[in-house]
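The aim of this short unit is practical: by the end, you should be able to scan a pair of folded records and say something sensible about each. We start with the first protein, listed as its amino acid sequence and then its structure tokens.
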Amino acid sequence: MILFVIASGIVGGFIGWITNRLAIKLIFRPHAPFRIGPFYLQGLIPRRRQQIANTIGQVVEKDLLSIRDLALYLSGPGLQSRVGEILALRAGAYLRSRLPFVIPGPVRELLGQAVEEMLRREAPLFLSDLASDLPNELQQELDLAAVIEKKINQLDLNELENLVMRVASSELRHIEVLGALIGFCIGLIQAGLFNLAQIYGGKGMGI
């Protein structure tokens, strides 16, 4: 009897584990529709890929990073200073490399430094003026939700599956273990009920 109860728990645990594992696999696979009689089988993400991508794009644009938020970040004074510094260094290096070699090195260096200083001083002011029109321009020209949706749809399904598995591997493994544990408990309960039925059924027959 004890062996029967333990065996029932093990079988139930295996069924629970394999069921949850199969359910997790069916999130991603099969990639293409697979026909089984009158029915078609396809993974949840491949089948709803466009809808999922559209939903993610809308959520990101409306709730996480709106065009106005992005514009405000790009127009921040700290970023303007960094952009001005980058422009200054690039312009100075470009000027030094493009000036004729007949111009002495010290003179080229002096001219490069003069351009850098001018851009460090003027670029933040120019970027600040540009930033005032940036939110309206971005809202008119940039569809952030469409960009995100396009990027997700362009992802290879194998890459997408590997990405999700890397991020949520421990949680998915917990789901498998939980399925095995629940199945084991159900197996024990079923075996216990069966034994009780046998015992009380035997007593009833004896009566």
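Turning to the second protein, read its sequence before its tokens, just as you did above.
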Amino acid sequence: MFTRKSLIIALLVLVAFAGTAFTIGSVIAADATNGLATASFVRKASADGTAEVELAQIALRNTQAPDVRAFAQRMIDDHSAANQKLAALAAQRNLSTPPPNAQAENLINRLQGLHGKAFDKAYASAMLKDHKKAVKLFEKASRGVGDKPVRNFAAHTLPTLKQHLAMARKLEKAHG
């Protein structure tokens, strides 16, 4: 009992859905070919930013060194603010903001057991390594993420991360 008209309508609906899927797929592919998918960046940046705050809180408890304490407080202030902005962007896009990954959790657990100079050395080394990675991630995202507000977030946050990297180099030099 299918009429020619109903078959044409069904075919048009099918083409419309295929076009939608193609458009969504094209956006994801465009993101990936430009270097970094939006969801991947948001997950990585969120997990790493949360870890930075947790590590800095441990630093405030486990060090007596004024420069390490000052650095840790700056990490808490700057990364907490960035984490809030990123969480808002993620929520608008229905993207998850996971907790720190297993590698970060291992570092958190290891640093919790250190105090004094041993802590300062390990924390300074970790901050240098982490901020080198963060600068690379945010540089890539500021050029290659397809979602413009997320790309702008990365570009706006990058100078602060570069400052953190410079500070981490000084900290590592003093305590490494």
